[in-house]
Amino acid sequence: VKLVESGGGLVQAGGSLRLSCVGSGFTMSTFHMSWYRQAPGKERERVAGWFTPNITIYADSVKGRFTISRGNADNAIYLQMNSLKPDDTAIYYCRASSLLSGDYWGQGTQVTVSS
What number of other Cβ atoms are within 10 A of residue 78's Cβ? Predict the structure, then answer.
């Protein structure tokens, strides 16, 4: 199982980014998928999750600004981030979890929001 995130970068406050997480070695539709982030000196927190078959959740801090979605044909999950704030600066990680198969994490992608 492998997860590879991409799409991070430097953006000004108010801007947007779209993160991608491409999976290999497993069928993503059978896993619960989540996006987490970890800012310097802070604990890792979940910002969005997609739970099979079709339930999405968001942290209060990103509701209305972030949207998690799955690819239809590709083994991928996305995080559309709008109205970004400096507090959104963090490394963003993709997580795949299954009661039968366990937890898997990507290597992370850096998001930096300048004021």
Answer: 21
Give pLDDT tens digits for 46-93.
999 999 788 999 999 999 999 999 887 779 999 999 999 999 999 999
Q: What is the dihedral of CA 97, 101, 107, 109, to 10 degrees?
A: -30
Most distant pair of Cα atoms in the chain: their distance: 43
Cβ neighbors of 100 (< 8 A, separation 6 or more) are none
Identify each DSSP E strand in the chain by its residue range.
2-6, 9-12, 17-24, 32-38, 45-51, 55-58, 66-70, 76-81, 90-98, 102-105, 109-114
